[in-house]
Amino acid sequence: MRHNKKFNHLGRKKAHRDAMLANMTISLILRKRIFTTLAKAKALRVYAEPIINRAKEDSMHNRRVVFSYLQNKEAVTELFREVAQKIAERNGGYTRILKTGNRLGDNAKMCFIELVDYNENMLKEKETKKATRTRRSRKAAPKAETAEVEAPVAEAAE
Question: Could you tell me the fold of the domain covering 14-119?
Answer without folding.
Answer: 50s Ribosomal Protein L17; Chain: A, (3.90.1030)
